[in-house]
Design brief:
The chain has seven helices and 14 strands. It has about 325 residues and is α/β, with parallel strands linked by helices. It has one domain: 3-Layer(aba) Sandwich (Rossmann fold). The longest helix is centred in the first third of the chain and has 18 residues.
């Protein structure tokens, strides 16, 4: 996103441009006011309510530096409500993979040529067989044009005890790093593991010895929610921090199309980046807004300047 207008101004410009484009002809995407709506907007952060596949269509091409997300796991059952088809509630794993591919196509469009897409995926065992969901999705992303830069194993040391008698206890998830080009932005120095203590002089840091490059196996504990106000699954901040440090420049924009409890947005803001969060759950976004306001030292009841438009993506004529 352009750095001089702020997230609020830029998203408003995106929506105005989409409206102007729709007026040029019939049968194009039309934006109306009851599916995609703005929950929160500031110069550094925007939270949008709606299905990720629809909301992403309102964002401008080549406007995001880095996406870090963990979509709902495949379960075959609904989560939000009987009338809402949330990703994860598909009847078959093939439909689930295609749903994530549809998100991946839009993320590809909105990502800058030097941008990255970090996607956390878990597998599911049915009838004593793993479905291979993570790699099915990864190959679908390759068909879109994404290049697999890294396959990270997220090792979870405090795992859920397995009751299975004929297979090992799962203790990891996969975290794929996709890029659009071989020249993708990557700041390795921002994530090196220190090999020796820094040397301090009279004027501050005098020498910071180079450290080692992190491996693709990350041991990060699951963050259990201890607050009764947060019934949502918590994305570990440590899992989000390294991708943002490495693949989003300071002042750049981080996107999470399944923002959930808001960890990606909060970490992005803490690290000096802008953030855009999308979710189909108004409750999740309300909780995320509260976390963001608390991070910024504001009360959750603080008055926030709204976007000019609450939007919907549908098909037909401009009304």
């Amino acid at each position: 996103m352009p750095g001089d207008g702020g997230v609020r101004h830029t998203v408003r410009a995106w929506l105005n441009a989409r409206l102007a484009g729709c007026k040029k002809g019939m049968g194009l995407t039309v934006i109306t006011s009851d599916m995609v709506s703005t929950v929160f907007a500031s110069r550094e952060c925007g939270l949008l309510l709606g299905d990720a596949r629809e909301v992403l269509r309102t964002l401008a091409d080549d406007s995001v530096d880095c996406t870090v997300t963990s979509p709902p796991y495949y379960s075959g059952r609904r989560h939000v409500g009987d009338t809402i088809h949330e990703i994860g509630s598909e009847r078959t794993v093939e439909e689930y993979v295609e749903a994530l591919a549809s998100v991946g196509r839009e993320v590809y469009r909105v990502t800058r040529p030097t941008g990255s897409y970090w996607l956390n995926l878990d597998d599911k065992c049915e009838r004593k067989e793993w479905l291979g969901i993570p790699w099915r999705v990864a190959f679908a992303m390759r068909e879109i044009g994404w290049k697999i830069r890294s396959e990270v194993i997220w090792h979870k040391p405090r795992r859920v005890r397995s009751v299975a008698k004929d297979r090992l206890t799962p203790a990891h998830e996969l975290f794929f790093h996709f890029v659009k080009s071989k020249d993708a932005y990557y700041d390795m120095d921002a994530i090196r593991e220190p090999s020796s203590p820094p040397i301090w002089g009279k004027n501050g840091l005098a020498k910071a010895p180079g450290g080692s490059v992190p491996t693709d196996v990350w041991t990060i504990q699951i963050e259990d929610s201890t607050s009764p106000e947060n019934p949502y699954a918590v994305f570990p901040e440590a899992l989000v921090e390294l991708p943002i440090r490495a693949t989003c420049p300071r002042g750049g924009t981080v996107l999470d199309p399944f923002v959930g409890s808001g960890t990606t947005a909060v970490v992005a803001l803490r690290l000096g980046r802008k953030a855009i969060g999308i979710d189909a759950s108004a409750d999740c976004l309300a909780f995320t807004k509260k976390r963001i306001l608390e991070f910024g030292g504001q009360r959750a009841t603080s008055r926030q300047a709204p976007f000019n438009h609450a939007v919907k993506v549908s098909h037909g004529r401009m009304r």
